[in-house]
Amino acid sequence: MYTPQQLxxxxxxxxxYLSTExxxxxxxDTLLNPNNEEDMTRLISVALAxxxxxxxxxxxxxxxxxxxxxxxxxxxxxxxxxxSELRKYDIFNSYDNINDALDDPGLxxxxxxxxxxxxxxxxxxxxxxxxxxxxxx
Length: 137
Description:
Elements (H helix, E strand, L loop, with lengths): L3 H17 L16 H14 L20 E2 L4 E2 H8 L11 H5 L2 H15 L10 H7 L1
Antiparallel strand pairs: 1-2
Helix pairs in contact: 1-2, 1-5
């Protein structure tokens, strides 16, 4: 189980890693930029919302498979959907199975931060993170 403070640290880890990969954050209505404190809070809220008990928030995120095993980690990233994108980063290539990588909360945060940007504005990408922006705030 992960507290909001731990989730914050994982997102910081993701930001640090992605900065070494020349990852560029953008601002916009449907974009979340973790350099913005309000958006950082939203990213943490997404992980917490993924692990609520019905409509009741638990205050913790978990590292359990969801959606019949298809989504993984605190941010419930779909490994099979995003594998080709994530394999562009060396840090994911030491894992034979992408879901094993996504079970690591730090790598899950990298995947979440990266995939949020990849699908924004896309209507043909399944499981697009843009849905969260519309659904939760």
